[in-house]
Amino acid sequence: MSLSRDVIDRLPHVEGVLNYLAPMAEKPMNLAYDPPPGAARSTGVPEPHRMTIYDARPVAARLSLDGEGLAVVEHRSAVKDFYDEEELRRVYYPEAERLVAEATGAERVLVFDHTIRRRVSGGVDRAPGTPRQPVTSVHNDYTVKSGPQRVRDLMGEEAEELLHHRFEIVNVWRPIRGPLRDAPLAVCDATSVAFTDFVPSDLVYRDRTGETYRVRYNPAHRWFYVPEMRTDEAVDEVDLRAHGPGGACRGLLDGLDNELGRAVEV
Q1: What is the pTM of this model?
Q2: How many structural domains comprise the chain?
Q3: Backbone angles phi, psi at 224, to 5 degrees
Q4: What span, in angstroms and rounded, lies between the C-alpha atoms of 115 and 163?
Q5: Is the pLDDT confidence value at 256 over 60?
Q6: Are 173 and 220 in contact, with CB atoms under 8 Å apart?
Q7: Which residues, 6+ apart, have CB-to-CB distance to 85 below 8 Å?
Q8: Nearest to 96 by CA among 250, 242, 235, 189
Q9: What residue spans of 75-145 are helical by DSSP H?
Q10: Which domain holds residue 249?
Q11: What tens digit of pLDDT does each residue of 36-56 get?
Q12: How are strands ordered across the β-sheet holding 198-204?
């Protein structure tokens, strides 16, 4: 059952500016590589809106992946160095698989990639020599087209059978350093998002084109964040369910402090 309006209104909250997508006629696009001189890295004009973002801690036990599309969980990782690729795959991937299995009841979980983000003041995401930056636009990583395609890419001959059953693409996000004060993750309650709010957007690589969702502004959106998130906490959020997006969208809540944020997501 979704949280009632009166419960949400009583939660501690902050205000922050979130970058939605301004109306446009053509399909938006974002390059996943450094563009040639004079070419745009992305299309689509950000439309900033000041939104109320609620503290999820007081209602963490009532949030669920099946309901709001997000969950706040406590989890102490055994990883010593999140910048060590071998250790991350050897230790954190199995940890994340167990974490998602416990949160969802899934019979099978597969971690297929990860991203380490470290905000650099003035840094441009995917620019050469710059660590991956927080995404500053409201978005969802998978669409009704790219989600099933990801299953096909990963699961080979099993894919078509698996796609006849329920599946979810779940993002697990946690800070590497804490408490996190700069650029915390903001997640929108999936029950407050209409399918028509999602705008398919091409994610263009050198050898292929994927698809994500940008998001139109909707005053009905309800946003949550976890203030001063610790390294023994994680936010799970659903990017796609088997029979439609049904997922939370996410944004960057900027400017709460000047300590530059570092996070890992799988």
Answers
A1: 0.89
A2: 1
A3: -130, 155
A4: 26
A5: no
A6: no
A7: none
A8: 235
A9: 85-87, 93-104
A10: 5-265
A11: 888 888 999 999 999 999 999
A12: 13-21, 46-55, 223-225, 185-188, 250-252, 139-140, 209-215, 198-204, 29-31
Q: Which amino acid is at 180?
A: L
Q: Could you tell me which residues come within 8 angstroms of residue 98 by beta carbon, excluding any fewer than 6 positions away?
A: 109
Q: What is the mean pLDDT of residues 208-225?
A: 95
Residue 94 tokens read as: 């199995």
pLDDT of residue 25: 94
Which stretches does DSSP call E strand in the chain? 13-21, 29-31, 46-55, 70-74, 115-118, 139-140, 168-175, 185-188, 198-204, 209-215, 223-225, 233-241, 250-252, 262-265
Tokens encoding 136: 């500053």
Q: Are 177 and 227 in contact (CB under 8 A)?
A: no
pLDDT tens, 173-210?
Answer: 999 888 988 888 999 999 999 999 999 999 999 999 99
Strand order in the sheet with 70-74: 70-74, 233-241, 168-175, 262-265, 115-118
d(C-alpha 110, C-alpha 94), whole Å: 9
Contact 223, 189 (CB under 8 A): yes
Q: Is the peptide bond before 179 cis (omega within 30 degrees of 0)?
A: yes
Beta-carbon contacts of 122 under 8 Å, excluding residues fewer than 6 positions away, are: none
